[in-house]
Amino acid sequence: MKVIKHSFDGVIVGAGGAGLRAAIEAAPHMKLAVITKLYPTRSHTGAAQGGMSAALANVEEDNWNWHAFDTVKGSDYLADQPAVDILCKEAIDSVVELEHWGLPFSRLENGKIAQRRFGGHTVKEGEAPAFRACYAADRTGHMILQTLYQKCVSMGVTFFDEFQVLDIKIDDGVCKGVIAYEIATGNIHIFEARAVTFATGGFGKIYKVSSNAHSLTGDGPGILYQKGIPLEDMEFYQFHPTGIYRLGILLSEAARGEGGILRNKDGERFMERYAPSIKDLAPRDMVSRAIATEISEGNGAGPNNDFVYLDLTHLGAETIKQKLPDITDFVRTYVKIEPINEPIPVQPTAHYAMGGIPTDVNARVLSDATGTVLPGVYSAGESACVSVHGANRLGTNSLLDIVVFGKRAGQSMVDYVSSTKPMALSENAAEDLTNKIENLMDKDHNLEFSVPRIREELQDTMEENAKIFRTEESLEKQTEILTDLRDRYQNVTISDKGKVFNTELLEAIELEYLLDMSDTTVASALHRKESRGAHSRVDHVERDDKNWLKHSFAFKNDASVKLEYKDVELGNYEPKERKY
Amino acid sequence: MDVKVNILRYNPETDRKGHWEEYILEADPDERILDLLHKVKWFDDGSLAFRRSCAHGVCGSDAMVVNGENMLACQVLVKEVSTPIKIEPIRGLPVVKDLVVNMDSFFDSYKKVMPYLVNDTEPGERERLQSPEDRDRFEDTTKCILCAACTTSCPVFWTADTYVGPAAIVNAHRFVFDSRDNASKQRLEILKDVDGAFRCRTAFNCTSACPRGIQVTKAIEDVKRQTLTIN
Ligand SMILES: Cc1cc2nc3c(=O)[nH]c(=O)nc-3n(C[C@H](O)[C@H](O)[C@H](O)COP(=O)(O)OP(=O)(O)OC[C@H]3O[C@@H](n4cnc5c(N)ncnc54)[C@H](O)[C@@H]3O)c2cc1C
Ligand code: SF4
Ligand code: FES
Question: Do B13 and B34 lie in a common domain?
Fold first, then answer.
C-alpha cells in the first residue's frame, strides 16, 4: 500500500456545518487541512430543513433566557445549564454572522430575517409557542452548508475531499495526527497534526428507519471509542415524529410550526390529549411517544394500523409553496400524493444523537467522567456531546449547536497550536491501519459474513429492541444479539479487492463503528433505570432525579461496555415536572 | 416484480474499456433506482462503485444517466422508468470507476466564478436588510446542490470542456442578483470570457436535467443580459 505523509498544524475531520465553521475560525491562524469522506456540500447538514433558533425578536418579544429555559426543559433537565446559556446567548450573533456571510434567509416585509414557530420553543417560559426559528424556506441546512462552504472557498481553505479518516494517533495521551484513506486511489495518507477536531456528524444508520444519510455511521465517536475515550449519554437517541412512512425521509417540524396537525385513523387530533397547551408543537420525544402509543392502541391508520397522518390540507397551496416547498416535493416524489389535498402517512424516524464524544464548552474532548481534557483533540456538532441537548434536543438547536460550538472548536485549536510545537509521527504510524486493511483484503469472501447481512440484522434488531420504548427484557435480548453480531463481524469479508473506489472496504470498516454505537446505546439504556427525554423505559416510567440526574460515560472494556457517571451541571432552572 | 437492469461497468484496474453488465433484480415498483444499485452492490457484486449519501435528492451525490437522461438515482422510482433500465455515468467527465466520475474540473469551474458574497461595507451589529422581493430575485438559483446533472447534459460542454458550464453560471447568478453583493462586475467580467456564459447555445438540456427544478437556461440568459450592463 502506498503511504503518503503530510504535515499540518491542525486537521478537521468532517466538512458539515460544524467542521466548516471550525475551519473558518482556525484557517487564518495555522496550516490547516479539512478532511472529508464526502464532498463538503454533500454533508448531511444540507438535509436540514426547518430552521435555526435565536432570540432575534424579529416577530415578537423574545430573549435568550426564554430560549435557554425551553432548551433545559426540553432536555428533561439533563443538559448542562452553563453550556445551554452559551448556546442561546451566542445564537444571536451566530445567525447575524451567517447572514453577513451571505446566507439567504427568508425575510419579513421589513427586510429582517423571518422567524417561525417550532416544537418546544415558547415565550415567557411556556406561555405560548414562540417565533424563534430563523429559516430559509424549508432548506435552512442547505443554505447554512452552502454559505459556510462558500466562505471557505473565499478564504482558500485546504480540503482533502473524499478522504476517509480511519485512525487517530495519540501517544502518551497527546494527539499527533490522523491516518486517512484516499477513496479514489486506495492510498494511505498520514496527516501529522497536533490539533484534531472531529466533526463527523451522527450515526442514525444503527436503525432501520432513519432520516440520516448512508454516510452517517459514527466514525468520529467510533475511532475515539476504540482508543479508550468514553461516549456520553448514548442512551438518548431522538426519534423524529414525522418521517415518511417506511422510508424515514424527514418532514420537518416546520410543517407543524406552520400549522400542520397530526391525526390518527379516526381523524382525531390526538396531541390534544397528550400536550393540551402546545399540542402538535410539543417536543419530539413526547410526540413520538404519543404516535407510538396511538399505534399500539390500535389507532394507527392503514391496513396494518402502523402510521398516523400529518395533515397540511388546511394550510392552503400558497403557504405550502412558499414555506414548505421541499418537503412537500418529497411527498410527491416518493409517496405520489398531493399534500395540498391529502394527509401524509408518517411514522417516527431515527433522527438525532444527543450523545457522542464528551466535550467541555470549548469543544475540548474529555477522556473520563471527571473532566480530564485530552490534549489536542476536539469535537463539535452531532458527533459531540457538550451537553446542550440533554435527554431530548429541541428542533432548530442542532444547526445552532454546529455553528456555536464549531466556532469554539476552531478557537480552541488556535489556542492550542499557538502554545505548542509541531510533533512528528513516525513513518510506520499507518501500520495498524494498513494491517487492518490487508487483513480484510486477504480473507476469502464468504456471503455469510458479508457487510450487508450483518448490518441489516443490526438495523432490524436495534429497531425492534432499542427504539422509542425499551424494557430490561428487550435491551438484554439486544445485548445478546450484539454479542453475536460482534462475533460474526470478527470474520467479516469483502469481495472487492481493488484499490480504486473500494467502498465495500469502507462499509466494512464503518460497520464496526455502527456496532460500537449500538453497544454503547444499549448498555447505557439498560443501566439507566428511569425514563427521561428520549429514553423511555416501560419498566421504569418515572424520571428519577434523586439517582439519575447524571450523564453516563460508556467506555470500551474488551468486548463489553463499562459505565461511569457524572453529575449534571445545574443553573437557573431547578428540575421540575415536564408538562406542556 | 423482476426488473432487468443494465449497468455500464468499468474498473480501471482490470478493464481497458467499459462494458455492459446485465442484472435481473427482484424489485418493488415504488423503490428508487438507488435501491436497485444497492441491491446489486450488497447482494451480487460488492465492487460496483457509485456515490450516494442522503438518498432523497438533497446532497447531489448520485447524478447518473438513466435510460439516456441525467437524473439523481435516489429521486426516481422504478415504476417511472421503462425497462430494461440502462444506467451509465454522467458524460463529459473522466470515469474513475463504474458510475463514479472525476469531479475536479467541475468544482474548479464553480470556484472560478467567485461563488461567495462580497461586501466590504461595515454590516453593523444586526443583519443586513433585504426585502422579500429582492430576496426572491435569486431564490431559484440558491437551490443548487452541485450535482453536475446540468453541466454534463450540455452538448457544448461535451465538446469544449473548458466551458465553465451551466452549474457555475447558476452559482454566479445566485450572487449577481443578490442585492447585498458588490462584486457583480468582477463576476460578469469572468463570465464574458470566451469560456463563459456566451458559449451557451440554449439547448435547454440543463433545465430538464436539473433535479432541483432550477430554470437553468433562464438563469444563464439573465446572466448574459446582465453582462451587457457592464463595460
Ligand atoms: C433530515 C434532517 C433535517 C434536519 N433539520 C434540522 C433543522 O431544521 N434544524 C436543526 O437545528 N437541526 C436539524 N437537523 C439536525 C442537523 O442537521 C444535524 O445534526 C447537523 O447538521 C449535523 O452537522 P455536523 O456538521 O455535525 O455533521 P454533518 O453535516 O453530518 O457532517 C459530517 C461530515 O463528516 C464527514 N465525515 C464523516 N466521517 C468521516 C470520516 N471517517 N473521515 C472524513 N470525513 C468524515 C462527512 O463527509 C461530513 O462532511 C436535521 C437533520 C436531518 C437528518
Ligand atoms: S443547477 Fe441543478 S443540475 Fe445543475 S448542479 Fe445545480 S442542482 Fe445540479
Ligand atoms: S443520494 Fe443524495 S442526492 Fe441522491
Answer: yes
Q: How far is B63 from chain A (nearest CA, A)?
A: 12
Say what the pLDDT of residue A559 is: 85
Tell whether B74 and B125 lie within a shared domain. no
User: Contact A504/B41, CB-based, under 8 Å?
Assistant: yes
Please say if the pLDDT value at position B231 is more than 80: no
Residues of chain A with CATH 1.20.58.100: 429-567
- Please, which pLDDT band fits residue B156 given cuts at 50, 70 and 90? very high
Whether B110 and B80 map to the same domain: the answer is no
Query: B49 to chain A, minimum CA–CA distance in Å?
Result: 6
B86 and B38 in one domain? yes
CB burial of A560-575 (b: ≥16 within 10 Å; e: otherwise) equals ebebeebebeeeebeb
The finding on whether A252 has its CB within 6 A of some atom of ligand 1 is yes
Chain segment A452-492, per-residue pLDDT in tens = 999 999 999 999 999 999 999 999 999 999 999 999 999 99
Rounded CA separation A202/A217 (Å): 7
pLDDT at site B20: 98
Cell of A61: 418579544
A329 burial type by CB count under 10 A (0-12 exposed, 13-18 middle, 19+ buried): middle
Q: Is the dihedral of CA A270, A271, A274, A277 positive or negative?
A: negative
Dist. CA A164–CA A14, nearest whole Å: 9
Of A377, A510, A380, A490, nearest in space to A439 by CA: A490
Asked if residue B62 and residue B41 are part of one domain, the reply reads yes
* A291, A315, A331, A334 from A339: Cα distances, Å: 20, 10, 7, 12
| CA-based radius of gyration for chain A | 23
CATH architecture for residues A429-567 = Up-down Bundle (1.20)
pLDDT of residue B40: 98
| Domain CATH for B197 | 1.10.1060.10
Q: pLDDT tens across B91-143, in order?
A: 999 999 999 999 999 999 999 999 999 999 999 999 999 999 999 999 999 99
pLDDT at A579: 87
If asked whether residues B90 and B126 sit together in one domain, one would say no
Which chain B residue is nearest to residue A213, measuring alpha carbons? B54
Which CATH code for domain A243-349?
3.90.700.10
pLDDT of residue A166: 98
Interface test with B, best of A107, A163, A182 (most B CBs within 10 A): A107
For residue B171, give its domain range.
Answer: 104-227
Pairing of strands A195-198, A10-13: parallel
CATH value at residue B59: 3.10.20.30
How many domains, chain B? Answer: 2
B178/A142 CB distance under 8 A: no
Share of chain B above pLDDT 70, in %: 100
Asked if B111 and B205 sit in the same domain, the reply is: yes
What is the average pLDDT value for chain B, to the nearest integer? 96
Q: What is the pLDDT of residue A530?
A: 98
End-to-end CA distance of chain A: 59
pLDDT of residue A580: 87
- The model carries a pTM of 0.98
A537 is catalytic: no
Give CATH 3.90.700.10 domain extents, chain A: 243-349
Q: Which residues in chain A have their CB less than 8 angstroms from residue B123's CB?
A: 100
Q: Contact A42/B131, CB-based, under 8 Å?
A: no
Whether B208 shows a pLDDT value over 80: the answer reads yes
Question: From the CA of B144, how far away is ligand 2's center (Å)?
Answer: 5
My answer on whether B216 and B124 are in the same domain is yes
The pLDDT of A513-532, averaged and rounded, is 98
Determine whether the interchain pair B97/A500 forms a contact, defined as Cβ–Cβ distance below 8 Å: yes
